[in-house]
Write a structure and sequence with these properties.
This protein is mainly alpha-helical. It contains 18 helices and no strands. Helix 11 packs across helix 12.
Length: 387
């Protein structure tokens, strides 16, 4: 089993994996994290991301991002960063492609709705649901439930948003929650932010919920690149200036992440991934000035796009859809497929209803709401939720 490339001392080698929960023979020429990546790509939860909301519901336009295209953009950036830092790109890509498997229909709105409904049994978070999917809910192999991913990929899922709160995520206790994960896992949350900040500007402008001049004035990361594009290519016009500026935004963020993280890794004279785990803090980071500008961009998107009145109105209706469906399935588990009805017997109706509902696409959730509750169809909801 060969390594995917020459790795830096601080990278996670395939040969140092802690293995899989269920023993399997390794492949003759496919490294362990490459196999994890392929298992993720071929699972049903990954395919369903094509019809899950990023900002705008899938049927609203062919060019808006979905949860699937977002995951692909995260993976693209993760590979770039991994290559620049001589990290294990197979591990980084596995974590990038899996990071949103646990998302519900309608973006983070589903998390906001389900969390209080499940308060008595630990609440709901998409990171916890992702781990549940890859460990239990996917059914692709005869000898075990889930995808049987390596310990390091499962660890990265558990730590995607930082140190997990064991009171809300007790399953994460298995993954040394207080210990920093490998750099491949540390960078994924930042790469996720870079991807959605970039493409949400793009989609927000495409939808005309954002205005170019207001964005350029309020967000220095975009404004600098936009003004430079207008200066260098004055004849091209606004549409092309925006495309050039968006490339400038993503390049500035990725380049800063690489340079800042490389400097910190090099300064610490790390000799192995064990040295990474022994550090008092996570090492993947943006520089303070760029981190501040990234926060300004995030604030702008929250205020101007994710909380736009048209989107908030749709969120209000979609929240009722999710509440109605949860109540219907929890009261009548027989309305769910047999495996979820059986799960209701072993783990309770609330958990089974959550698993079934969280796995739905936007389209299917609205179809089920119409079937069970007499609700309107998908065309009644032209705009969806924040990513």
């Amino acid at each position: 089993m060969g390594e995917p490339a020459a790795l830096a001392p601080w990278a996670q080698p395939d040969a140092r994996t802690r293995g899989r929960r269920h023993d399997e023979p390794e492949h003759a020429y496919r490294p362990v994290y490459a196999r994890d990546r392929d298992r993720i790509v071929h699972c049903r939860a990954f395919r369903r991301l094509e019809y899950k909301t990023q900002v705008f519901v899938n049927h609203e336009g062919d060019h808006y991002r979905t949860r699937l295209t977002h995951s692909l953009e995260v993976a693209q950036i993760a590979r770039t960063v991994a290559r620049a830092l001589s990290l294990n790109s197979d591990l980084a890509e596995s974590l990038a492609l899996s990071h949103d498997l646990g998302h519900t229909p309608f973006g983070h709105l589903g998390e906001d709705v389900l969390d209080p409904l499940l308060a008595s049994i630990g609440g709901f978070s998409h990171n916890r649901q992702t781990l549940r999917i890859v460990e239990r809910l996917e059914q692709r192999y005869p000898g075990f439930p889930g995808l049987n991913l390596t310990w390091e990929v499962r660890e990265g899922i558990a730590k995607h948003s930082g140190t997990p709160d064991l009171a809300r995520f007790p399953e994460a206790a298995e993954y040394e929650p207080a210990v920093p994960p490998p750099v491949e896992a540390q960078m994924i949350d930042l790469v996720d932010e870079i991807a959605y900040n970039h493409h949400d500007i793009d989609d927000g402008l495409e939808s005309r919920l954002l205005e170019v001049e207001d964005l350029a004035e309020a967000v220095p990361l975009f404004g600098r690149a936009y003004r430079e594009a207008a200066r260098r290519w004055p004849a091209q016009g606004e549409r092309m200036w925006v495309k050039i500026a968006l490339r400038g935004v993503i390049d500035a963020l990725v380049s800063d992440l690489v340079a800042t993280t490389r400097a910190d890794l090099t300064a610490r004279d790390l000799r192995s991934v064990d040295d990474v785990r022994a550090q008092p803090r996570w090492l993947a980071a943006l520089s303070p000035p760029i981190a501040a500008e990234n926060r300004a961009l995030k604030r702008y998107l929250h205020e101007k796009l994710y909380r736009h009145p048209r989107i908030l109105e749709t969120k209000r209706h979609l929240a009722e859809v999710l509440k109605d469906l949860f109540a219907a399935y929890a009261a009548q588990p027989a309305e769910m497929p047999d495996r979820y009805a059986a799960l209701a017997e072993s783990e309770g109706a609330a958990r089974a209803a959550c698993d079934y509902l969280a796995g739905m696409t936007d389209r299917f959730a609205l179809q089920e709401h119409r079937r069970l509750c007499g609700g309107p169809g998908p065309d009644a909801f032209p705009f969806a939720t924040r990513p």
